[in-house]
């Protein structure tokens, strides 16, 4: 608090008017520029707010109209089915390769057995031929 010894200037004194005028002159331009800048900022903010609201409404309309969430769900379901089908096809491919190898091996074994049987038959025929009595050639 001010002491009673300090002189107080009345509000109507020319000194107060001069001081007020000095403060207004010194800071008036700055405050004017700030006011203009704030008005521009508020205008731009309103424009952006309106644009964001319109975009939000557009997205909601699109979701409602085209069922975006439903489409995403279906897309994920079909993607999972595709992945499973690919895995099944890969497994079937591997199994068919194994079966082909096994079939080739079995076929080779059967061919070898068949050749062995033919060789044995030929050998048995040859032995029977040798065992059959031949007429002796007569010496004259």
List the helices and strands and how they pair.
Blueprint: H1 14-66, H2 68-131
Q: What would you call the shape?
A: rod-shaped
Structural class: mainly alpha
Number of H- or I-type helical stretches: 2
Q: What Rg, in angstroms, do the CA atoms define?
A: 54 Å
- What percentage of amino acids are in beta strands? under 5%
The total beta strand count reads 0
* Order of secondary-structure elements: HH
Major sheet summary line: none
Residue share in helices?
over 70%
Low-confidence stretches: 1-6
- Mean of pLDDT: 87
Head-to-tail CA distance between termini:
173 Å
Q: Mind explaining what this structure looks like?
A:
With about 140 residues, the chain is an all-alpha fold. Helix content is about 85%, strand content about 0%. It contains two helices and no strands. The longest helix has about 60 residues. The chain is rod-shaped and about 175 Å long. It starts with 13 loop residues before the first helix and ends in a 9-residue tail after the last helix. The N terminus is likely disordered.
